[in-house]
Amino acid sequence: MADTTPGAGEPATVTADPLPTWQTDGVVLAMEIVDGVAYVGGNFDHVRPPGVPRGGAGEVERTGLAAFDAATGALLPWSPVATSPVFTDDVVQTECDNLGNNQYRCDTVWEIKASPDGSTLYVAGDFGKIDGQRRNRIAAFDTATGALDPDFAPSPNSRVRALAVSATTVFAGGHFTEVNDVTRTRLAAFNRSDGALLSWAPTADKRVMAMVLAPSGGRLIVGGDFNRINNVWQHGLSAVNVSDGSKGTFLSNDIPYNNANNRSWVTDLVSDGSRVYASADGVGTFDGRLAVNPDTGARIWINNCQGATQSISVMDGVLYSGSHAHRCDMQTYYEGNGFPETRPHRRFLAEPANTAAGTKQKILHWFPNAQPGTRYPFVQGPWTMANDGTYLWAGGDFTEVNDVPQEGLTRFTTHDVSPDVNGPVQTNFQAPTAVANGGGKVTVKWGATWDLDNRKVRYEVVRSDGAVVCTAEANTVFWTLPNMSCVDSSGVPGSVYKYRVRAIDPHNNRISSPSSPDVTVT
């Protein structure tokens, strides 16, 4: 397990070491893990093995949808093709494939959700066909066979961005205003058995981007960029009743709206069976995470770290998030505050999910990073996350993970399954300085480094004759790196030595600094 001192009682995170995983040649926007299979969707045309550049050996076609072994990251045979007609528009379509000459194609998969029993997989987005068969923006697959469901074929008139699935019903939210030529204003429901449009018809005045069923099953929590649900003002986060579509009580007012220059909206919703967690994007205001009571909507805790959060996943008492967090000093980190305004932005964060109501939220020591690419217009990094209790998957528009090339997909796991194998951060771990003090003593000084998922780092000062002359340790984070020193009292007068420093994490992973200049012991 990760070193947990001095934050005794805090939940352990997965390691920050990414596991070998296949890659995509475009953005991944949705994922779901069912019976050991990680299904992913987005806007991509090919996938390839880990470590292989675009167009390299082993690359194969996958158009908008793909499946992988959740435990090994290996590609599986499932390969439906999501497509859409080409259209022309003078307005730039930033979320579609730009083909040039004002021509675009929107075939992106935005959402994937499984039925509670795992037998059916529902996908939604912009596409118009699956494997050449007409499926307007929503489709279903049998997970046992991988086959497209021949009966489930509703026809929303615009993007479906969010799904939630009960034993009998598929709930959908998005940008649409009609389904099967019947008015449905951004919210709709379908019979799971045959795809029939149900009478359930609450309304949202703007886009719905996320939804999750409350653990009780009687309420649907919805999130997005709307201002009104059923014409009742409640911006960004609300609830509707499953029975009749009426607006449910929702007490939280944490998703602010003022004007176009100062507003935020919900991007993702998840539940751990007792609480519901929301993530937000924002302009000049809230874009962190919060936890609410699913039965009342009352806020339990809030994290005001700045930097748009696009995805969240809760696993073993930890809420993981994909974001571009750049300031977090309004939250606590163990005994101190979180990080100040910083670059590069931190693309992944972790925090306790079960923080008590009214308690200031903490961030945990888990800081892997993902470098976003430039092809996708929003340059975010992580856009979606999912876990099966053992493996945490993340997808997005990134091209590197922890400074190593890896595009579109990555995954992490617990220390019990795959031990921590990467040492502290090598970047900027400089050579120490060494000064002879007389009497055979040398003072060695160096700047501390830090570790992605362990707060404690131990240091060994190694003399050029191989002797470890002194040791030290410190709890360090990337935004506070202390200067450290120790004294070598065992040098032989008249000798010339160099010194280097080894940084070692609690799992005995180590890195070494460059050697110091020569120093003569006097």
TrEMBL record:
<dbReference type="InterPro" id="IPR011047">
    <property type="entry name" value="Quinoprotein_ADH-like_sf"/>
</dbReference>
<keyword id="KW-0378">Hydrolase</keyword>
<keyword id="KW-0326">Glycosidase</keyword>
<dbReference type="InterPro" id="IPR013431">
    <property type="entry name" value="Delta_60_rpt"/>
</dbReference>
<keyword id="KW-0119">Carbohydrate metabolism</keyword>
<dbReference type="InterPro" id="IPR036116">
    <property type="entry name" value="FN3_sf"/>
</dbReference>
<dbReference type="InterPro" id="IPR013783">
    <property type="entry name" value="Ig-like_fold"/>
</dbReference>
<dbReference type="Pfam" id="PF17164">
    <property type="entry name" value="DUF5122"/>
</dbReference>
<keyword id="KW-0624">Polysaccharide degradation</keyword>
<dbReference type="InterPro" id="IPR003961">
    <property type="entry name" value="FN3_dom"/>
</dbReference>
<dbReference type="InterPro" id="IPR015943">
    <property type="entry name" value="WD40/YVTN_repeat-like_dom_sf"/>
</dbReference>
<protein>
    <recommendedName>
        <fullName>Fibronectin type-III domain-containing protein</fullName>
    </recommendedName>
</protein>
<feature type="domain" description="Fibronectin type-III">
    <location>
        <begin position="428"/>
        <end position="522"/>
    </location>
</feature>
